[in-house]
Backbone:
């Protein structure tokens, strides 16, 4: 009895010490379940929230408006590998801090760019499950930030979109492979390649022909330079659609030009800035239209990876997982990664993961069978 009272006092003291000693961004790796719980009690646990409803008005409209002016970055604000989310944050469609809830991201990509609702759900909840903080319901669109609050214990990452390997991947258009340099900042050398190719095959604009050749060039470069180059699920899917996003979303909604002006493209990619008077497109799009088919068909691609040495690119026979439909394979991949990051979640964390897994399933529910890793 006495011993157990003593133990309780000790445990309380430990909880107090932890509450004081740990910074919100410190890893909780190696702590026991009780220690983690004691720490979690010192922060606000928001947990999973229902996905927001689609926006009602999907007409073309001015989005670089008086209420959403571009502002330069301050030292504590996060920007990362996604020019779309960066611009939304720098115009105040997302919190300018670059730290947002998944619901805020789903609504902002619709409001700012007219991204189609289901695509917004799919991309956002995929990223949030693997890079967000499921306890505080916040994600950094860039690097690790104290604003997202204390993370669940390792192997959970909760370290933002800059995190390599779960969502962010190799052979990006304007960012280096993580193994070769900075995977999230604008890279001038790579952007010059985009300019050169657009001048050669796009008539001085970034159009589908340019997108197809930039995609292929970046693929070939990673095969030749990155021994650990990974280009299978999910990267095999995201790498193609991202090449057409600038054409689909960064061209002014009033324009009939099928190509993107390169200065406008640079301002989005380098400065997170929309052009003056920018209008979003007039119809919702997921970005997976004829442009995507064109880019994928322009060269021969297979999902795969380098085997630890350059130029060893090998087909990945497991790229479909247990699925026969590519979208369901993508869904399964993110569920599996979530399970790897959260081997045995309990309590609030388990509830939050399940809510976000439900949200992630919404956009694929007509095609795929739901997976319940934590029933
Ligand atoms: C819906 C939520 C979104 C999330 C969570 C997200 C996340 C990301 C991430 C993690 C990357 C880096 C992938 C890589 O290259 O390794 C990326 C790239 C990219 N994203 Fe987004 N994104 C979202 C929406 C958008 C939107 C609405 C646009 C356009 C308006 C956009 C445009 C792009 C482009 C063009 C790239 C490629 C950048 C490059 O390869 O240099 N994204 N996004």
Residues:
């Amino acid at each position: 009895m006495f011993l157990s009272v003593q133990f309780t006092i000790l445990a309380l003291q430990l909880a107090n010490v932890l509450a004081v000693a740990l910074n919100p961004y410190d890893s909780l790796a190696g702590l026991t379940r009780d220690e983690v719980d004691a720490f979690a009690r010192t922060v606000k646990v928001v947990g999973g929230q229902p996905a927001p409803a689609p926006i009602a008005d999907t007409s073309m409209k001015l989005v670089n408006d008086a209420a959403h002016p571009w502002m330069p970055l301050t030292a504590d604000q996060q920007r990362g590998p996604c020019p779309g989310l960066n611009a939304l944050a720098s115009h105040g469609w997302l919190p300018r801090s670059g730290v947002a809830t998944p619901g805020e991201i789903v609504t902002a990509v619709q409001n700012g760019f007219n991204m189609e609702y289901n695509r917004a759900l799919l991309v956002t909840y995929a990223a949030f499950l693997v890079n967000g903080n499921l306890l505080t319901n916040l994600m950094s669109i860039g690097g690790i930030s104290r604003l997202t609050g204390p993370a669940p214990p390792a192997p959970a990452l909760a370290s933002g979109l800059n995190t390599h390997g779960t969502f962010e991947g190799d052979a990006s258009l304007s960012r280096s492979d993580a193994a070769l340099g900075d995977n999230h900042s604008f890279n001038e050398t790579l952007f010059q390649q985009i300019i050169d190719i657009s001048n050669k095959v796009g008539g001085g604009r970034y159009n589908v022909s340019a997108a197809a050749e930039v995609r292929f060039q970046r693929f070939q470069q990673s095969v030749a330079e990155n021994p650990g180059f990974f280009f299978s699920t999910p990267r095999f899917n995201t790498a193609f659609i991202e090449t057409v996003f600038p054409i689909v979303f960064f061209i002014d909604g009033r324009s009939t030009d099928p190509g993107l002006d390169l200065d406008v493209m640079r301002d989005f990619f380098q400065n997170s800035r929309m052009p003056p008077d920018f209008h979003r497109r007039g119809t919702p799009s997921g970005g997976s239209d004829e442009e995507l088919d064109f880019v994928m068909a322009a060269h021969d691609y297979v999902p795969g990876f380098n085997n630890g040495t350059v130029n060893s690119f090998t087909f990945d026979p497991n790229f479909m997982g247990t699925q026969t439909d590519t979208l369901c394979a993508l869904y399964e991949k993110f569920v599996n990664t979530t399970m790897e990051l959260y081997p045995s979640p309990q309590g609030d964390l388990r509830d939050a993961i399940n809510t976000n897994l439900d949200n992630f399933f919404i956009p694929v529910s007509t095609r795929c069978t739901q997976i319940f890793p934590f029933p």
Observations:
- Strands lie at 99-100, 139-140, 205-206, 230-231, 260-261, 304-305, 314-315.
- Residues 43-364 form a domain with the Chloroperoxidase fold (CATH 1.10.489.10).
